[in-house]
Amino acid sequence: MFRPILENIRGIAKRIWQSRLVKTLTVAILIFLGLDFFFPVQTDIAYSTIITARDGSILHAFLSRDDKWRMYAELPEITPTLREAILFKEDKYFRYHPGFNPVAMLRAIGRNLLTGRRTSGASTITMQTVRLLEPRERTYGSKLIELFRAIQLEVHYSKDEILQLYLNLIPYGGNIEGLKSASLLYFGKPPVLLSLAELTTLTIIPNRPSSLRLGVHNALVVQERNRWLSRFRSARLFDEAAITDAIDEPLTAYRREAPQLAPHLSRRLRAENPNAPIIHSTLNPTAQSTTERLVQHYADRLRASNIHNAAVLIVDNQSQEVIAYVGSADFGNAFDGGQVDGVRAVRSPGSALKPILYGLAFDAGLVTPKTKLADVPTNFSGYEPDNYDRRFNGPVTAEFALANSLNIPAVALLKEIGTPTLVSTLQRAGFSTIKKQAKELGLSMILGGCGVTLEEMTRLYTGLANGGKLGALRMYYSTDPSDRPALPLKKGEGGSQPVTPFPSLKGRAGRSNGSVGPVNLLSPEAAYLVTHTLTQITRPDLPNNFDNSYHLPRIAWKTGTSYGRRDAWSIGYNQRYTIGVWVGNFSGVGVAELSGANTATPLLFQLFNVLDYNSPSGWFKAPKTATKLAMRLICPETGEIPGEFCTNPVADYCIMGVSRYRRCQHQKAVFTNATGTISYCAHCRPDSGAITRSYPNLSPEVTAFYQSRHIPFEVAPPHNPACERVFGSTEVGQTRPLITSLNDGSDYFINAKHPVEMELGCLAANDVQTVFWYLNDKLYRRAKPTEAVFFQPRLGTLKVSCADDKGRSNDIRIVIKNE
């Protein structure tokens, strides 16, 4: 039944396939595909680079490689009003033809033959786009090429993309091309904000760019504009009221300068993305302009002191986005190096790295906020640092040392932690210059003996603001529309943002060069303790008379002043922002009045007061891992667990399981005679007449400091000269050190989960200056004979050896057991 029907269908199909029309079409398609493959249409346009703010407003624009203002308009910027006006004027059937309009072409050919000259070109928007891409002489041969290229465009691109390409290339006279360029340079606004009158104005200029010159022949432009608006009215293209308002609207167009905000970041982003027509930065335009103004005015006031420049970086702590970037006080000031980017310039940090050092010390369990550190003159193997004010404070708490930026305690902490530990931490934080200098850095790096940038330092402090977790700074968005805020649309023009056909920054992550991914530099507990310390306002880096002249913002901040007073730093943060400020001279010239406290901090406070006054975001709270951060009673004399002589304990933070648990030894019990002129050890103490007294157990450095400053303190009396154990002769006539703590052959019980540090002590001959402590024949520490040495015990048998600088030694053996 169906077989005759199928055979009939096959016969019809065979006759159609063998017909000349089909063969001709097939050959034509194959020829077109071959030509399209070997001669593809080129749409790689050299656009002007545009830097936009996070709200879509343009911050900075650059000329294209061929010195044209040819700005790239994204699809969302081609509003329905613009689309309808341009299509009505240029190509009513644009949506329906395959790149050329056969009816219009036949009509044009007929007119040209009848008149003997060319009166109509019949070019579609697609063909005009081809002519803009590949300019040629107006001949019939050129028309054939344009026809072929127009079909190519229609095959490879959508109608919206072709219209977009056309609007990006149409000429407006001089070196201005593209509707977006004309909109910004003549009306000072993006295309989405243009009125109907302004849109109509821009649609008629490309046909007569020489005679209809905006700003020069505005009266003629208005006349031509209103003629087209009348046509729109006749065609009922727009609402009658809108047409009437557009006809009555005055024309105020004139040639404007291109936007030039955020010059340092704009140049940086352009250099990093040379082929991107639009780079969507993360800058907040209000914050950027405000910061630029404040920095310039502040630098103007400082010039009388021979201080000429400043740089500021502001980061949103939650998103890690840079919202303001000011590389110098005045980009146009060539005399003071205005084009130098102070955000990326390598400078000395002064004391600004100390917070991360104290954070590492908290995490290592070496100190807690109220641990006592010695701020006394100290020689670190030939390196003798001094404090900024050339004064010494004696024993101070760790929080006081950090808040007051004392140098000696910081160097001592770095020596105990180890320079490689700090260097590796900063390398993980993305400090590129420190990575290069790693092998050369020593203890001086904590006082500014290394190279850093404002960007690196500000990013480091965002880690403190985020609980010790450091992320990469973000300076621009990727091309994915969901990755950035929506462009502003005119009222009543909704709709989604389609993906741009010629994307900028394709595949880029939107982060700054050299940035690092998430890194846990500190524990949340250590970061909180550092923040808690840096919030104190009773400190020397508060600007002089600041309370009398400014409002003090609630921030945590740290200052730094480099050697020779070449760099002044002040970096602060609250929950919302981190702001880094550098002040100085790009020439490197030092100024006696330059300091982080009095030169950089006032600008830091101004910025916080202007940008985040009375911030509703609250303040930092103790980390959620509250079981680790706890309070404990400590002796105020040492910051350690109260011992038998500690009568007035105070509360202090500690990190459970991390902070060391050591009994206070600020006083030591000594057996003396009744008059207190002779001390005894356990071996020479008489059976009667000896009494127990307590004496300060000071380190040799603190003892020397008190003696040099004539500060009175109690000293234990000299040891009994008749003591045969200490002063008796050995078989070769020499005296060995006597280990007084610990006891030979004893068993010691500890809590293996929270071990208490154990003390080593000795008595040595009067001619001994240094002793060397060994644990299981491995050198543990070098110390003074009178210095108490502590170590963290481990379960098992332990051999303790003590040798003096004369080569004499003594050994004991003990056993450490779990209680």
Automatic annotation (TrEMBL):
InterPro entries: Beta-lactam/transpept-like, Glyco_trans_51, Glycosyltr_51/Transpeptidase, Lysozyme-like_dom_sf, PBP_1c, PBP_C, PBP_transglycosylase, PCN-bd_Tpept. It is an enzyme of class 2 (transferase). It catalyses: [GlcNAc-(1->4)-Mur2Ac(oyl-L-Ala-gamma-D-Glu-L-Lys-D-Ala-D-Ala)](n)-di-trans,octa-cis-undecaprenyl diphosphate + beta-D-GlcNAc-(1->4)-Mur2Ac(oyl-L-Ala-gamma-D-Glu-L-Lys-D-Ala-D-Ala)-di-trans,octa-cis-undecaprenyl diphosphate = [GlcNAc-(1->4)-Mur2Ac(oyl-L-Ala-gamma-D-Glu-L-Lys-D-Ala-D-Ala)](n+1)-di-trans,octa-cis-undecaprenyl diphosphate + di-trans,octa-cis-undecaprenyl diphosphate + H(+). GO terms for cellular component: outer membrane-bounded periplasmic space. Its EC number is 2.4.99.28. It comes from the Bacteria. GO terms for biological process: peptidoglycan biosynthetic process; phosphorus metabolic process; proteolysis. Keywords: Carboxypeptidase, Glycosyltransferase, Hydrolase, Membrane, Multifunctional enzyme, Protease, Transferase, Transmembrane, Transmembrane helix. Residues 484-513 are annotated as: Disordered. Residues 304-335 form the PLD phosphodiesterase domain. GO terms for molecular function: carboxypeptidase activity; penicillin binding; peptidoglycan glycosyltransferase activity. The keyword Membrane applies. The keyword Mitochondrion does not apply. It holds the Pfam family Transpeptidase. The chain crosses the membrane at residues 21-39. In the C-terminal section; belongs to the transpeptidase family. This is peptidoglycan glycosyltransferase. It comes from Spirosoma endophyticum.
